[in-house]
Design a protein that fits this description.
single chain; alpha+beta; 2 domains
Length: 442
């Protein structure tokens, strides 16, 4: 029992150092990712000139005024044309505009639908997502909750994507569309999407509309304060785009292809001195301990590490591959196929491989470190740089649980019984954390 406690303490330390510490203390927006809930929120309605209807500056997961998802883009123009601008596919060729298209009216952009060309840099596709409610007032003093008109996304459902929910004005003559754009990634532990932020999506949508023919970025695209800062990385400023006010269309329209923005390092920014290495700070005792640990390593340790990495990252890559290339599978089918690899495959494979190892601590440390590395690699692939506290704690617990399963499977741990305290504690923690995560307790 004493040895098991020592190993559990070591595993918690590993989880904290490799996941908890960097996530909680090095990410300035960790606490900001979680949505804000106010007991008595101020229902700040956004209104437009020449429009009777208004809309609250937040969306909500239920029909209640929870400050959950800040609306960050408003487009003045016909809703069907706004959708066409975002969704029509194009061939990327230059298109010559007719002379009558130079005098822009609200219908200026309707030719995009007719010609079949894509006006913005992203070919948004129709998306699947949970319903969110918007609080609107049509102008008669009788506001109500409405669901989204359409959902669009760019990216992979089981990877990372940019997601937009659109809400059109309740009155046809008002002609405005409210959008809530955010970036998100799919969390295989919760089987839900985790919102990473709203600012990047808002900027991307804003830049695409700014490059539309006939839109003057200095006049037709502005930022307005709608008092919805707080949740995620929202700063309270939304983008307002006036398509109806566009008056001077250019002669040419081409499909803008968005490329990755890479920060170049110039010779001036490169460090002059070679940084100190870890070896410079090691004592002779430290080196002796490392050498002893290295001598205990065997091929099965490497197999255990590579198996955990392959299973965890394989689920991510497999989900994206099935989504892209296997049309017969629905999103729910893909989740049903791959989630058991996370829930059952990883702990079972860990137990089987670790059962051939001798030392409990070695197996536990290898399993925990491998899962921690897999988690960091996965977040790196998804571009995630901040996490809510509940996710950080959940990841720490699964790292500890897998380490206990590995330690409890070794030959020394199973000398008296296969069902030892480490194995039982590890399996119980793994099951409780995963079930609790699925039901929203983590």
């Amino acid at each position: 029992m004493r040895r098991s406690i020592v190993i559990a303490v070591v595993l918690f330390a590993i989880a904290f150092v490799f996941v908890g510490g960097p996530s909680l203390f090095l990410s300035p927006s960790t606490s900001d990712v979680a949505p804000e809930e106010a007991e008595e929120p101020d229902v700040h309605m956004v209104e437009f000139e020449d429009s009777d209807s208004e809309i609250w500056s937040f969306m909500s997961a239920r029909e209640a005024h929870d400050k959950r998802s800040p609306i960050n883009v408003f487009v003045r123009g016909n809703s069907s044309e706004v959708v066409s601008i975002l969704t029509e596919e194009g061939d990327g060729d230059w298109v010559e505009m007719d002379e009558e298209d130079m005098d822009a009216e609200p219908e200026t952009f309707a030719f995009i639908e007719d010609e079949g060309h894509h006006a913005t840099g992203t070919q948004w596709g129709e998306a699947a997502g949970t319903t969110r409610y918007a609080w609107v007032d049509p102008g008669d003093g009788d506001p109500y909750w409405m669901t989204e008109t359409l959902q669009l996304d760019d990216g992979d459902y089981y990877g990372e994507r940019m997601h937009i929910r659109l809400y059109e004005s309740p009155n046809d003559e008002d002609e405005w569309v409210a959008m809530q754009g955010h970036t998100e990634h799919f969390d295989w532990f919760t089987l839900r999407h985790r919102v990473d932020g709203v600012e990047a999506a808002q900027l991307a949508i804003e830049q695409e509309f700014m490059k539309l023919p006939g839109v003057d970025p200095q006049r037709d695209v502005v930022r307005i304060n709608v008092d919805n800062s707080g949740p995620s990385d929202a700063d309270g400023w939304a983008t307002k785009i006036d398509l109806a006010g566009a008056t001077a269309a250019p002669f040419l329209l081409f499909a803008l292809v968005a490329g990755p923005r890479v920060k170049q390092r110039t010779p001036e920014t490169l460090p002059d001195a070679v940084p100190e290495t870890v070896d410079d700070h090691l004592t002779d005792v430290d080196r002796a301990r490392i050498e002893a640990a290295y001598e205990r390593l065997e091929a099965r340790h490497l197999i255990l590490a590579m198996t955990i990495l392959a299973l965890f990252l394989g689920v991510r890559i497999g989900g994206i591959a099935l989504e892209r290339w296997v049309d017969v599978l629905t999103m729910h089918m893909i989740a049903a196929i791959l989630y058991p690899v996370i829930a059952l495959g990883i702990p079972i494979a860990t137990y089987v491989i670790a059962s051939g190892l001798e030392r409990r601590l070695d197996a536990a440390v290898v399993a925990s470190l491998s899962l921690a590395v897999a988690i960091w690699l996965d977040y790196g692939l998804m571009g995630v740089d901040s996490l809510p506290v509940d996710v950080v704690l959940q990841r720490m617990l699964v790292i500890v649980a897998l380490g206990l399963i590995a330690g409890g499977a070794t030959r020394r741990a199973t000398r008296d019984s296969r069902f030892n305290d480490m194995l039982i504690a590890g399996v119980a923690m793994w099951a409780i954390v995963l079930v609790g995560t699925l039901f929203g307790y983590f």
